[in-house]
Amino acid sequence: MRSNRPLSSATVAAFARDITAGAWKITHQSIALDTSDRLMDGQHRLEGIVKAGVAAKLRVTWSVPEDAFEAIDTGRARSTTDVFAMKHGRSNSTLVVASLKLIDTLSRGFYARGRNSFAEVELLYETFGREVSWAASVLSAATHTVRTAPVVGAVAYAYPCDPEAVERFATTLASREGMSPPMAALWNAAERLGKAGGYARRLDTANITLRCLMAHVQDEHLAKTFMRGSTATDQAKGFVFWRRRREKCGLPTQVPGVDVNRK
Fold first, then answer.
1. What is the DSSP letter of 161?
2. What are the residue boundaries of the structural domains of the chain, listed by start?
């Protein structure tokens, strides 16, 4: 007997957050029922409505031939990055969107992988887009070691608090000419963590970037091998430092969101 594909809890949670935030949109994509009124398409939307506990409008198509099931959702789905690139026409959309998502993850303080909806990415762009675009542009001249979402996102988060110092940090990092000890420490850490890969490693790289930026503006010496002897608590000091700086400057520290499970 035919059944629907396994549910993705991340997709359900993303739909629920959009519904709760009032960002739900009606499109041509619908709930599809076959000639026996069995669900053929739309289980994630329906589960999202249940999870949100809020009514939402959507199209429903009845009496879809059963053999149409084989053709549903077989094409490549548009990612949030695809939609962002089409709307904003940016050539570096992948880096910009990844950096925005990383700022969201850092600022909310959870380490679970989450699926951001396009509405959430747009809100992140409205909040942090100017500085992320700037950081992505400056670091575009760097090698792949630091031309990454963790470094771009961290540099962007700190930039509005001390533009001159952070710009000097970013431009020197991109050229690798005359790097200070904190810059060398970041480069060394980025190389090591980049080779290891993984989502948690990218968050570690972002925290270390903020810690090195903190050392840079405070003229603190950091050994090139800082990462090897540091603890997670020490690495996180940078995020706490820059979050407080943003608060003092009257800048948003995160995007207001719905507290729905991000799984």
1. G
2. 9-71, 80-248
State both tokens at 252: 């948003």
What's the rounded Cα separation, in Å, for the pair 188 and 263? 32
Token readout for 106 is 């850092």
Half-sphere exposure of 250 toward its Cβ, with a 13 Å CA cutoff? 0
Give the pTM.
Answer: 0.77
pLDDT by residue (tens digit) across 27-78?
A: 887 788 888 888 888 888 889 889 989 998 888 888 888 877 777 766 567 7
CA-CA distance, 218 to 5, in Å (whole number)?
A: 53
Determine the residue type at 200.
Answer: A
Map tokens 């031309």 to a residue: 147
Contacts (Cβ under 8 Å, ≥6 apart) of 62 = 33, 37
Residue 75 has a CB neighbour count (10 Å cut-off) of: 7
pLDDT tens readout for residues 107-157: 876 544 567 888 888 999 999 999 999 999 999 888 888 999 999 999 999
Distance between CA atoms of residues 171 and 186, nearest Å: 14
Residue 38 has phi, psi (to 5 degrees) of -90, 145
Q: Give the sign of the dihedral formed by CA 61, CA 65, CA 70, CA 76.
A: negative
Contact 213, 171 (CB under 8 A): no
Cα–Cα distances in angstroms (integers) from residue 25 to residues 37, 59, 115, 221, 222, in the given order: 24, 11, 18, 51, 49
Q: Which of 147, 87, 89 is nearest to 122 (CA)?
A: 87
Question: What contacts 237, CB < 8 A, 6 or more positions away?
Answer: 211, 214
* SS3 of residue 58 by DSSP: coil
